[in-house]
Amino acid sequence: MLKKLKLILLVLIGCSVASLYGQTAKVSGNLTGLKDAKIVIYYYKGDKSVSDTVKVNGGKFKWVVQISEPQKVGTMLFGRYYQFFVEPGNIEIKGTDKSEEIKITGSKSQDEYEAYDKTLKDLDDQESPLYQKWGKVSKEEQVKLEEKVEDLRKQRRARSNQYIAAHPKSPLSISMVSDKAMMGSYSDVKEVFGKLDAAAQQSAEGKRIAGRLVVLKRSAVGEPMLNFTQNNIEGKPVQFSNFKGKYVLVDFWASWCGPCRAENPNVLKAYQQYKDKNFTVVGVSLDDKGENWKKAIKDDHMPWTQVSDLKGWKNEVSTYYGIMGIPSTLLIDPKGNIIAKDLRGESLNKKLAELFN
To answer: CA 252, CA 334: separation in Å to the nearest integer?
Structure first.
């Protein structure tokens, strides 16, 4: 009887340990041309983003990790950021420095991801030549390029939404919702999250998405803008409530951000066109060096109010809104409520024309 009790206890302990630590994924790499050094693999452990440093010898490496469920991880291979799915079991990565020749076996989630990716080839083939012309054509042609790219993006979103609805339990579906949550709007992410199976919503990644939704709701259309205070270029505090009564484009940017600097002339044109129609811009910089911030303002001829706490990506306002990519914008109405998000290029011009013309 005592032996049986001990056996039951060991089984219970074993179950608890397995539940706590998950199962093991063993990843073996053999990539011709990968230099002897190390690679850093980024992944999630619970709700925390972590990384492991793995040694490379003769293009070969091994990574062993405890995971409770399939997840997409990322690393730099041959100077490019590469993502793939890992799950409990033995996984092999083989290939060369050409990304199309890297093959992964042993991960059903990766197989599913690659199969889905092939269904997007028609969109990839249409999009590639558009980016080759990007910024090299006339203004009128550039507007048409932007419209075509946006249409293709809408088609991608529609296909991913259909896939998620048809595969509500799939790790790929969960990952696609997670990707949308990085840069998407609250309403869009909430809708696709609701299509996931209940168990998927309660997975580790599902819980991270739920937490992200709480943050995204802060920038949803109709929500009040945070009444933040940050210093301007002269070191004087500026409170956002000072702009109440005006339409305000809150522009999150940084001196080191190439796309931001490329968008600044468009924002300047909008400012000059509508500044006498109860419209202004407030720049919130994610810089951490004051001299670089001030130089960029001067070089790009930005006459509107600029503020920053010089904390880089830890800027308190951008962190509050969960901004993970710049340029990013919030358009605020005279009552202080958000009426649009992430307007840039032609979409910004169209929205302002609707308001003021």
So the answer is: 19
Q: Check residue 135 and give its pLDDT.
A: 76
Question: Cβ(311)–Cβ(199) under 8 Å?
Answer: no
CA distance 321 to 315: 10
Per-residue pLDDT, 134: 81
With beta carbons less than 8 A apart as the criterion, state whether 164 and 195 touch: yes
- Report residue 205 as tokens: 């990644």
pLDDT of residue 79: 87
Read off the DSSP letter of residue 92. Answer: E
Cβ-based burial of 233 (10 A; exposed 0-12, middle 13-18, buried ≥19): middle
Of 262, 251, 304, 312, whose CA–CA distance to 287 is shortest?
Answer: 312
Secondary structure class of 146 (helix, strand, coil) = helix
Four-CA torsion 150, 151, 153, 159, nearest 10 degrees: 160
Long-range pairs of 193-200 with CB within 8 A, sequence gap ≥ 24 = 195/161, 195/164, 195/165, 195/168, 196/164, 196/168, 196/169, 197/168, 197/169, 199/169, 200/168, 200/169, 200/170, 200/173, 200/174
Chain centre distance of CA 62: 28
Q: Which three-class secondary structure state does DSSP give residue 101?
A: helix
Mark out the alpha helices in the chain (DSSP H runs).
Answer: 2-21, 108-118, 121-133, 139-166, 171-183, 186-193, 198-201, 204-216, 258-274, 290-299, 316-320, 345-356
- Mean pLDDT per 10-residue section of the chain, whose length is 357 residues: 38 35 85 90 92 95 94 93 95 86 94 96 91 82 85 94 97 96 92 97 95 96 97 97 97 97 95 96 98 97 97 97 96 97 91 93
Instruction: Name 235's Cβ contacts closer than 8 Å, sequence gap at least 6.
Output: none
Which whole-number Å values give the CA distances from 327 to 81, 120, 256, 330, in the listed order? 21, 27, 11, 11
Cα–Cα distances in Å, from 69 out to 22, 121, 192, 324, 350? 8, 29, 20, 25, 44
pLDDT at 287 (0 to 100)? 97
Cβ atoms within 10 Å, residue 315: 24
Give the DSSP H or E segment for 253: strand 247-253
